[in-house]
Write a structure and sequence with these properties.
Layout: E1 11-18, E2 24-31, E3 45-52, E4 58-64, E5 69-77, E6 83-90, E7 105-111, E8 117-123, E9 129-136, E10 142-149, E11 155-156, E12 159-160, E13 165-172, E14 178-180
Antiparallel strand pairs: 1-2, 2-3, 3-4, 5-6, 6-7, 7-8, 9-10, 10-13, 11-12, 13-14
């Protein structure tokens, strides 16, 4: 299989996940131009493309548009083929109902197998934060890892910093409740 997904401008794919029956895959990243029929509202918008694993044919795509910058870096799937993807954004309007905390904030989103948005969470401090990878356990708890750049408060979700740039792990229960946020 050899296929291209994208637009006429810069598109970068960062993550890939294959469903439980290996019949399709999801690819996530960001686009700077209209992507698979979606307009890009800000500087860049994140995308999730669904492709047939045998042919590479694009089956569907979503584009998360905000007025600023939005990236998706990591994706995983659970046994029910729900997708969880993570990244970062910067927008004066926030992200899917969540107010912006700092310059860039971490994002984590859950979509069901039909492509409907289930939950969108943000995390961060007053500076720059991104999630890069995500995993889900058999109980449906979701864990994301990334980076947080220090701000005046020296905290990320209540945890104290060790250095100017620290690794972060954020955990959410299957219902979306925050369960952990250590700084590394």
């Amino acid at each position: 299989m050899d296929n291209q997904i994208g637009s006429t401008d810069e598109d970068i794919a960062y993550g890939i996940a294959i469903n439980s029956t290996s019949t399709y895959m999801y690819v996530v990243g960001y686009a700077k131009d209209p992507f698979q029929g979606f307009s890009v509202l800000g500087t860049s918008s994140s995308f999730r493309g669904k492709l047939d694993t045998a042919t590479g044919t694009v089956q569907s795509a979503i584009c998360i548009n905000i007025d600023g910058i939005n990236y998706m870096y990591g994706i995983t799937m659970d046994s029910s083929d729900n997708t969880y993807f993570v990244g970062g954004y910067s927008s004066s309007l926030g992200y899917n109902g969540n107010a912006q905390i700092g310059s860039y904030d971490c994002t984590i989103s859950k979509y069901d197998a039909a492509g409907n948005g289930i939950r969108h969470k943000t995390a961060g401090n007053n500076n720059n934060d991104w999630f890069y990878r995500v995993t889900v356990d058999t109980a449906g708890n979701v864990y994301a890892v990334g980076i947080s750049v220090i701000d005046g408060s020296k905290t990320f979700g209540g945890a104290s910093y060790y250095d100017q740039r620290d690794g972060v792990v954020q955990g959410y229960s299957s219902t979306g409740t925050e369960v952990m946020n250590p700084i590394m």
